[in-house]
Amino acid sequence: MFETRTVLSRVGLQLAVTLGVLPFLIPIYSMVAKSLEGRGWGNYEAVLAVPGFGRFFLNSAIVAGGSIIIIYLATLAAAFAFSKLRIRRKEVYFWMLMAALTLPEVVLIAPLYSTAVALNLLGTFWAVILPIAALQIPFTVLIARGFIDGIPDTLFEAARLDGAGTWRLFWSVLVPMAKPIAVALVVLVLINAWNSYLLPKVFLINDDMGVVTLLPEFFKRQYNDDIPKVLAAAVVTAIPTIVAYILLQKQFERGMAAGAIK
Amino acid sequence: MSNTSIRMRERAAVTGTDREQSRPSRATGPRKRRGASGLLPSGFMWILPALIISVGLIYYSIAYSGFLSFFSWGGGRQHLKPVGLDNYTEIFSDPVFWMAIRNTVIYFVVVFTVQVIGGVLFAAAMHSRVIMANVYKVIIVIPIVVAPATMAPAHIQVWQSDGTLNRILEAIGLGDLAQSWIGQSTTSLLVVILVGCWGSIGFGFILYFGAMTQIDPEMLEAGRIDGAGNFRILFSLVLPNVRSITISLAILNLITALKLFDSVWLITQGGPAHSSEFLGTMIYSETSGASRDLGYASALSIILMLIAVATSIIVQRSSRERAAARPRRGRRAVSEERNV
């Protein structure tokens, strides 16, 4: 994009980009440097040895896994039906769903909190998984429908002529065909669910139900503001996400860009 | 939940509208084939799970919020005390609410501007010949994949009195500028905003980077032959071509600013003296703690929702009006190209 004909301009660009990314590294550098203060790697050993540390990761995996399964099935089924099946007043239902696209989750916490208390769901994973699913589904359905609209109808008609029922169409034609978009959406939901903070903070009140985003607060309580250990915990929490991103770079970026680029 | 989800959903709302409208034939499609539609199996059962989870839960919550907003309620076993419109009148006369609105507007304007400029510059640089471009890319994107809640202790470490920033300032001889950034009401909002910029430039970068791959290189070549410099090309040719992304980002940032919670709560708790208060932190404070009032929180939620819906409609409307004027400019660019 930038034209760099001379060596000087090429070096200049390289230098400018390097200076430009430095601010991005400052918090990461501070985090790692401070986490090694005092007892060095001993901070990490202490953090990893805290009983129940693994539990936070397991709980996050439960929240993310549960959200992914529910969202994946509900989204593909709905997108399939909106795109390829006959529904009376189809667009009315579609827009009922789309109206929820812009809703910030903080709007849900007051009513959901009182409902969760009434239904005894406070302190269960459902109280987090269901709102996450509810907030993500409108978006994932929109993206998946756009993708499935691009799959030719004739493919489904041919399968139907060969005697396939709707279930068969779904599992044997749609699910394999929709794999590229499904992978992107799963990665996206995974990141959103793994990083969610407000909903778990409000609803997962039991001590043994903390998720990874609640770890810094947990360690603040545990260590009375022993900052190096709190930061060591933050580093340990951040590493899986960063590794996952580097490994799934393409899928992740496609998930983010889905729908934005026409 | 991370900002990403809202951003994504919001952007989808924008692009979704365009998509639906550009495809009117879809709505009439099934009717045209009425004779054959008997062959199509009914799909209502298939959309039911999505409708129940999403429409059910969200519409129920909104209705319940609306109901609760006319009461004063401490939650749990305490009884609901009807207060009429008092919650709403109280909000509008609450200086903290106006402080939160002011902070939201400032946050939106600054973060959006920085995200667009930073995103475009980095995306253009990564499309140029830069050594180790992928390493830079990963560094820029890491802030948007790691949870804001996880990064919050790191940001505190940077900005606190004996933190990294003050040490950098002292090292380069600007020690006079060193101050307690988080702890004073004049700079706490600045910290929140810069943390917001840090966490959102990468998102603008990914979207612009993707959109720039679809720009016709011949157009840029034409601009170059006409004597336009790098920055002139970037802002006069590239930026108008990725306008749809910029509009999406505007709405996404609006929603992000309106719902901002994670990093603010963990870094400044909205303080000191409400100087970095946002609607998200206000609502959360009202739903937790001993003096909570779920009725007041619900009224705040309803107002927040109305602002979110109203502003996204306004941005979409105005962008569509301007989009209608756009083809002319496009054609002129083409004819200029031909003249060359």
TrEMBL record, chain A:
It is a multi-pass membrane protein. Coiled coil: none annotated. Keywords: Cell membrane, Membrane, Transmembrane, Transmembrane helix, Transport. Its main location: membrane. The chain crosses the membrane at residues 12-36, 56-80, 92-113, 125-148, 169-194, 230-248. GO terms for cellular component: plasma membrane. Gene3D superfamilies: MetI-like. Residues 57-248 form the ABC transmembrane type-1 domain. It holds the Pfam family BPD_transp_1. Belongs to the binding-protein-dependent transport system permease family. This is Carbohydrate ABC transporter permease. It comes from Mycetocola tolaasinivorans.
